[in-house]
Design a protein that fits this description.
Elements (H helix, E strand, L loop, with lengths): L9 H11 L14 E5 L4 E5 L18 E5 L10 E5 L25 H16 L2 H11 L6 E2 L1 H7 L15 H15 L4 H9 L5 H4 L25 H4 L33 H11 L7 H9 L3 H4 L10 H19 L8 H15 L4 E2 L1
Antiparallel strand pairs: 1-2, 2-3, 3-4, 5-6
Length: about 375
């Protein structure tokens, strides 16, 4: 049965939360120890709202924040064990936005989210080099880290908030189901497209297992050639990247040939390439090519939205571009306050997983 939990132990949950879910508490919720009890027919949930930290506006590691404690029924073998899951409360839901209000990037250090986003991109653009990306590709494509099903991998994303995203502060699992459901509404007959929406960010699992977020999340860009102006924070964050002093990497084409095709290009390392490689490695994956392409390049905003790097594209890349742009409408604009009823949706998406990506997957 699907549960909103990353860990069945309080200790492990707090460790994961401290590492991946630092969050600011609104001023009106500062009262230490304030609790709300929600009664339901099956369980009572205590939502503990922690005192705001005096430094950096982060949750205290000792606080169980935005977490529900669910007690299982007495006839369950785990009756005495608490299961912790992140509660997507009103404090962390994005406001309704118009399309032009998405993807706004500033260097405002007084804004908590904008500061977090800028710092993530600064680290990314300092450390993402051609050598680094090749090394991480070699490390992660050994597929010797663990084996788990797609649904189990999704459950892991309940503890991950994307530190590069200026538009949402929700656990990534919420965004996964939001995207999938928006695609399902618009394209009811394309079940592979629904599943692609659900799993497109599953490569972020790397962050749960030790990779820093600057090497997992955010927009991707080609390495080994000149950085385009449409790359986020391009003018403010690349000055300490050693590749910028290599003359071979700082021309329009760099190490590549004209129209060589994106499959020949080394992209900055992140969740797109990793998930593409995971699916390609899975012998029973039967998703169509469009799904592989969407997963591999959906974060390549400087290309599909910024209009740069066309000189590296093959005719096939341009043929697949409309699919990525169609997907992007649901990926970006699905970030809304409505929280999907995930347990109700799980059976449908499990049937798609069984159809297209069955069994244990090597990660």
């Amino acid at each position: 049965m699907f549960k909103f939990c990353f860990s069945r132990t309080k200790k492990n949950f707090k460790q994961k939360q401290q590492r991946f879910y630092h969050q600011r508490i609104p001023e009106e919720e500062e009262e230490e120890g304030k609790k709300r009890t929600i009664q339901s027919s099956n369980s009572s949930c205590s939502i503990a709202i922690a005192k705001e930290s005096q430094q950096e506006h982060l949750l205290s590691p000792e606080a169980i924040t935005t977490a529900n404690v669910l007690r299982k029924k007495s006839n369950d073998s785990l009756a005495s064990e608490s299961i912790y899951y992140l509660d997507p409360s009103e404090h962390f839901r994005p406001e309704h936005k118009s399309p032009e209000e998405y993807r706004i990037y500033t260097i405002n250090q007084d804004d908590y989210i904008q500061k977090r986003v800028f710092d993530t991109y600064r680290l990314m653009h300092t450390n993402q080099t051609l050598e680094f990306a090749r090394n991480r590709l070699h490390h992660w494509t050994r597929f010797d880290k663990l084996k788990m099903t797609i649904m189990d991998a999704l459950e892991n994303l309940n503890c991950l908030v994307d530190e590069s995203d200026p538009d949402v502060d929700l656990p990534n699992i919420i965004h996964a189901f939001q995207t999938a459901e928006r695609i399902r509404e618009a394209h009811p007959d394309l079940d592979w497209f629904h599943l692609t929406g659900l799993i497109h960010d599953l490569g972020k699992l790397m962050a749960v297992y030790g990779e820093p977020q600057w090497a997992v999340v955010g927009d991707t860009f080609p390495l080994g050639c000149q950085v385009a102006k449409s790359v986020v924070y391009a003018e403010q964050t690349f000055m300490d990247n050693p590749d910028t002093t290599n003359s071979d990497y700082n021309t329009e084409y760099g190490i590549y040939q004209p129209n060589c095709g994106l499959k020949q290009v080394v992209m900055s390392w992140g969740h797109d390439e990793y998930m593409y490689q995971v699916l390609k490695n899975h012998p029973d994956c039967s998703l169509p090519e469009q799904a592989f392409y969407i997963i591999r390049f959906h974060s390549f905003y400087p290309w599909h939205t910024g209009g740069d790097y066309y000189h590296l594209c093959s005719k096939h890349d341009l043929h697949m571009l409309p699919w990525i742009r169609e997907f992007n409408k649901f990926d970006l604009y699905s970030k809304t306050p409505e929280i999907p009823d995930i347990p109700k949706l799980v059976p449908y998406y499990q049937s798609l997983i069984d159809k297209y990506i069955p069994g244990l997957v090597s990660w």
